[in-house]
């Protein structure tokens, strides 16, 4: 089974997305399932995971409603207020009744405090999340957040986490450190996974598989295929290419790996991690 473990939808008429401003150009509009469907078919993708685009219940409810209407959606990564553990627990009681609800994410890179995710109240919220057996997507935009992953892994050891977009490595600058050292440190914890996603926008215009290769190879060496999963990051991907290009170039970058390793990254890992 081929799985896109990281895609978004947003409807500007239904939900408020304060971060999405006109300067985002081509992605400053509504993107919904009928637009993605032919792109998935063309790539041979069987299932997707919709990931939150706003810290709001409205966004989560909209994603769950979409999931119920499209058989190719296998899961939803929603949102609850981690900094309000009691409210988070009450909402999770309700959300976990929905079979599509698989985990949560918070736009930590939009918080003023770069250390927000390791605050005591947030750690308590993550413990609540782990208690429900749900997963946490870490928006670890380099260089502010990746360093916190080992702290989270030690403070909430039973929480399964996935680092979105390999924490946005400095591909455009063609640098490895200090990103590589921090990613390797995070990979030491078996409950930490990572997404091979969003790398095209980190690479910038005119990118190809060759630009992504060193970063994917490094992640493969430290996480192994069983803890890496492909994601398109559509429609954000449209800022530097399109769905087909992301799929094709990622496949080229994975070409040297064994069939079983490629199968894991392109679907198997996501199925296990999110319990799809």
TrEMBL record:
Amidohydrolase-related domain location: 3-276
Cited InterPro entries: Amidohydro-rel (IPR006680), Metal_Hydrolase (IPR032466), Metallo-dep_Lactonases (IPR052350)
Matches recorded under Gene3D superfamilies: Metal-dependent hydrolases (3.20.20.140)
Name of a matching Pfam family: Amidohydro_2
Top-rank taxon: Bacteria
PANTHER family found in the cross-reference section: AMIDOHYDROLASE, AMIDOHYDROLASE-RELATED DOMAIN-CONTAINING PROTEIN
Family the entry assigns: Belongs to the metallo-dependent hydrolases superfamily.
Record protein name field: Amidohydrolase-related domain-containing protein
Native species: Gordoniibacillus kamchatkensis
């Amino acid at each position: 089974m081929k799985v896109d473990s990281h895609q978004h939808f947003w409807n500007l008429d239904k939900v408020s997305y304060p971060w999405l401003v006109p300067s985002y150009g081509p992605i400053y509009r509504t993107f919904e399932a009928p637009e993605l469907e032919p792109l998935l078919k063309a790539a041979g993708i069987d299932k997707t995971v919709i990931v939150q685009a706003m810290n709001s219940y409205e966004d989560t409810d909209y994603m769950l409603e979409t999931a119920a209407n499209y058989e190719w959606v296998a899961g939803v990564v929603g949102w609850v207020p981690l900094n309000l553990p009691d409210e988070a627990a009450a909402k999770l009681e309700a959300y976990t009744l929905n079979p599509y609800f698989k985990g949560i994410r918070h736009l930590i890179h939009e918080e003023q405090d770069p250390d927000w995710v390791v605050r005591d109240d947030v750690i308590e919220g993550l413990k609540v999340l782990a208690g429900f057996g749900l997963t946490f997507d870490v928006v670890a935009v380099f260089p502010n957040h990746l360093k916190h992953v080992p702290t989270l892994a030690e403070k909430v050891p039973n929480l399964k986490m996935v680092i979105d977009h390999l924490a946005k490595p400095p591909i455009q600058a063609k640098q490895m450190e200090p990103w590589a050292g921090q990613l390797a440190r995070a990979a030491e914890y078996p409950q930490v996974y990572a997404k091979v996603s969003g790398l095209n926008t980190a690479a910038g215009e005119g990118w190809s598989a060759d630009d992504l290769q060193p970063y994917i190879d490094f992640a493969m060496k430290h996480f192994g295929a069983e803890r890496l999963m492909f994601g398109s990051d559509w429609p954000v991907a449209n800022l530097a290419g399109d769905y087909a290009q992301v799929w094709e170039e990622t496949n080229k970058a994975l070409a040297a790996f064994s069939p079983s390793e490629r199968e894991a990254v392109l679907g198997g890992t996501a199925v296990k991690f999110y319990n799809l």
